[in-house]
Amino acid sequence: MQGNDQPAATTPGPGIGRYRWRVCAMLLAATTISYIDRQVLGVLAPFLQTKMGWSELDYSSIVTAFQAAYAIGLLGAGAVIDRFGTRIGYALSIGVWSLAAMSHALATGVLGFAAARFALGLGEAGNFPAAIKTVAEWFPQRERALATGIFNSGSNIGAIVAPLLVPVIAAYWGWQAAFLFTGVLSASWVTAWLLRYRAPDRQPRLGAAERAWIGTQPPGPSVRVPWLHLLRHRQAWAFAAAKFLTDPIWWFFLFWLPKFLHAEYGLDLLQLGPPLIAIFLCADAGSIAGGWLAGRLIRRGWSHARARKGAMLACALAVVPVMFAAKAGNLWLAVALVGLATAGHQGWSANVFTLASDMFPRHAVASVVGIGGFAGAVGGMLISTVVGLLLELTGSYTPVFLLAGSAYLVALLAVHLLVPQLQPARLDDPQPFPEGNP
């Protein structure tokens, strides 16, 4: 069965049930915790850079350590989750990152922080492959972009919660306590996941009507599709290209925005909260709106390919004005431009993630997401190094914002050229790039 399998029912009647949305809520919680863990360092960066005496390149190296581990982890995370299933695979992933988050409290210098970030990256590499595979198992195709947008909004919620809580925790109990707090959150989620989650074909709380709407099929966790086989297909390259070109922009927003606001507008640790919260509230809205837009266009009669790429184009255009953020000259104008860009990115991301389940069968989805995540992490490593060097040499954020504003349109062009109709991959075809010749 290909990734575009259709549900047995055609419309979700009023009595169909909503258990699948409870599962989506658990994915939302996991992604939120993941981004709280990631954002703690970003929020504390101006403070820690002064306290520890880091240079711009030192901070860049610490950020790159996370992204390198994230890339390495994605080499195997998707395959492990496809092999063992989302219940066990997700629990292992979050267990590792829970311990890694708490280990930051023991760091005393660049090497210690880099080691802790490396371990965190290895654990968090499993989050998106597991979440996307869960969505593919629990939702029919027409609902996947919305479900993905909802759980992916956790990346923004986490980025909102972090500047609310981290400065307060650091002020009262020290910066180490902020890292310990996030580790406890992760461990709590693992316990709830293992106690409550089962695959849809094994979930006794799932009603017959909702099961029919989902079109539940056994996910076949024993089937593993090697990366080399997946990379024969242009669909995998399209997904990887979209991630490689646009994930680095989100990494920049996540890890460098507090430093940008501190450097350009003199904001201290406690003053960073309101601008960051406003920016990531915009991102949260964009994540859900991007998924909703694709579903709305499908309901209006658009083809899946046209609706998906139409939503991606709208999101890409929303990012373009961020080119002017470095020259805004006013804090809240800069916040508005960056907020619009983060909204565009998250709407884009909801649709890009859904491409994997649109074009690949369920048993290969986590591996495909792993390939894309690896490409995105490699791109993130590159941009971290470039940003560190640019700031060390010039102190200017202008070139990076120019890159951010153009990346999404370039990525959409790459997707269109590779898979103009978003054709499902035929994994049993031994020929490279057999489908969808323009």
Automatic annotation (TrEMBL):
Classification via InterPro entries: MFS (IPR011701), MFS_dom (IPR020846), MFS_Na/Anion_cotransporter (IPR050382), MFS_trans_sf (IPR036259)
Main location, first listed in the record: membrane
Segments forming domain Major facilitator superfamily (MFS) profile: 23-423
Compartment(s) where it occurs, according to its Swiss-Prot or TrEMBL record: Membrane
Matching Pfam families: MFS_1
Membrane topology (UniProt): Multi-pass membrane protein
Entry keyword set: Membrane, Transmembrane, Transmembrane helix
Lineage: superkingdom: Bacteria
Transmembrane stretches, start-end: 59-81, 88-114, 173-195, 236-257, 277-298, 365-391, 397-419
PANTHER family, per database record: HEXURONATE TRANSPORTER, SOLUTE CARRIER FAMILY 17
Family membership: Belongs to the major facilitator superfamily. Phthalate permease family.
Protein name (Swiss-Prot/TrEMBL): MFS transporter
Organism: Rhodanobacter lycopersici
